[in-house]
Amino acid sequence: MQVPAQAPAAPIAFDIPSQPMAAALNAWAVQANAQVFVDPGPVAHLTAPAVKGTLTPRQALRALLARSNLQVAQGTDGVFVIKPRPAIATVITPPPEAPQATAAPSAPAPPEPLTARASAGPWLVGLGAQFERDAAGATGGASAAFSGEYFITDRLAAALSATTPRTLSFAVPATPYRTGARLQSTALALKYYFAPEARLDPFLGAGVEVATLYDAGSVTGLDRVTAGPSVAAGVDVLLDVHWMINAGVSWAQVRPAIDPVQFGLGFVYRFGASGD
Q: pLDDT tens digits, residue range 123-176?
């Protein structure tokens, strides 16, 4: 029987919905134009996660198996073989006072499923928008926002974000006039994620924000840099293995003349897993 060649290494647009593992592997084989062999027993009661995006066949197959006790091997004929990970027996050494006694081998515990940090990667980059409302005589508006995060553990991440400068206007104190200025902010925070393996992953964060107000026209003393504490809350909505939508709200005590509450919405890409 002629066997298909090895699956190409070039990325392919995969679209595999969440379904029983056997059906998901069959869908992968069709979309990757590859041959896969699997024993029905180990996958009978498993459900595969959705995999959607432009990935190499190995990346897509790893995403399907990431949270299971299965591994993949590929023969020289190009056939992918799915099988359970081998059990590693643990032998308890005898105590020194009774060298003649030997403990029976303990039953091996099944390997833990890979976490999102291991399967998708520890790095996040995001692009979105940040909104502020009119407040205290100052006009609100929107700025483009850029962010980056690194997961120190499966749930704790260090985050850095910055906005592009935006123009606002506000009343000049003790005068009937208004003036314009430019505002840019940068924030550094620690964020805690409550459900990193789930489709909806809420988080809380705390840190410090630095705001720069400049080009304030002819008004003396308004150009300044201020810093203060900030807190944030929000949720990441998983779209596929790497992509998600982020929505959140933050508060920072850095510019008393402007509303300290800000709203954000954007897209986030997660990467950095071994083998990507």
A: 999 999 988 877 666 777 888 999 999 999 989 999 999 999 988 776 666 666
Indicate the fold that domain 12-114 takes in CATH. Answer: Phage tail protein beta-alpha-beta fold (3.55.50)
Architecture per CATH, 118-271: Beta Barrel (2.40)
State pTM to two decimals: 0.58
Which three-class secondary structure state does DSSP give residue 273?
coil
Which token pair is 64? 């399907």
Q: Where are the domains of the chain?
A: 12-114, 118-271
Q: How far apart are CA 20 and CA 50, in angstroms?
A: 11
3-class DSSP assignment, residue 5: coil
Q: What is the rounded CA–CA span in Å between residue 86 and residue 146?
A: 43
User: What are the Cα distances from residue 234, in Å, to 194, 201, 246, 249, 268?
Assistant: 11, 9, 7, 6, 13
Q: Tokens 């902010």 label which residue?
A: 185
Relative orientation angle of helices 57-65 and 21-32, to the nearest 10 degrees: 180
